[in-house]
Structures are given as C-alpha cells and as structure tokens.
Design a protein that fits this description.
Layout lengths: L3 H17 L7 E6 L2 H6 L1 H14 L6 E6 L11 E4 L6 E3 L4 H13 L16
Parallel strand pairs: 1-2
Antiparallel strand pairs: 1-3, 3-4
Helix pairs in contact: 3-4
C-alpha cells in the first residue's frame, strides 16, 4: 500500500499529464504521429520526451502534447506538428528525442522555428 503522500504525488502527476493533453485552442498544440508507421519509426520515445520536457519546463499552462494517427507522410516519420494560435502549422520530420528536446528549447520556449528539422527543409521533388 502506498502512503497518502505517495498517492497524492501520483494523482498530481497524472492530473498534469491529463491536463497537458487537453484540447484548448488558446494553447500551442504539439501533435505526434502515432500510427503504425510512426511507432515503427520511433515516435513513442519522441512523444514521451516531448511530454516529459513540457512538464519539466513547466509549460503545461500553454502547451498541450497530444498524439494522432496517420499524418500521411510515412517516409518522414516520426513527425511532430506544432500548431500555435494564429500562426501557420510547423511540421517537423524524422524526429528523435534529442531533436524533440531542441524543438522544446528553441521553438516552444525561444520562439524560433528549428528550420533544419522542418518539412520545408526536405529535398522533395
């Protein structure tokens, strides 16, 4: 049996995770493609890294991390989309936990798109 303090800590952690994933169009939404192709390409550790970093950096009051199914660009998985209110959607491709950490620091905190990881930077013909 857990102590009352341990149970409270677990409840708080789970409530933070649930509220972080809530849809609120005033929040920045970070969406990770978690269809079969995304998961096979490593999307689960990317989602975990983003969720953990948003909590650690205390961004849950303005950033919601969610998952979606197929985004339709399998060759670029894992894919992370950042949707900020009033701004165009940014699609990050071929992500990993280290790149996700950089996106949190530079984009979500610093306000600067990490251009070299975006779909726009891909050599699409």
């Amino acid at each position: 049996m857990k102590s009352l303090e341990e149970l409270r800590a677990i409840r708080e952690r789970v409530q933070n995770q649930v509220s972080m994933r809530a849809e609120d169009h005033a929040h920045t939404r970070v969406v990770v493609g978690m269809a079969t192709c995304g998961i096979a390409s490593g999307a689960r550790p990317v989602l975990t890294a983003l969720s953990n970093l948003v909590q650690e950096k205390k961004l849950t009051n303005r950033v919601a991390v969610t998952q979606t199914g197929c985004i339709g660009l399998c060759q670029y998985e894992p894919i992370v989309e950042v949707m900020e209110p009033g701004k165009p959607k940014i699609t990050y491709i071929k992500m990993n936990p280290e790149k996700a950490a950089e996106v949190v620091e530079r984009h979500l905190i610093g306000g600067h798109i990490v251009e070299e990881y975006t779909l726009n930077s891909a050599d699409i013909k």
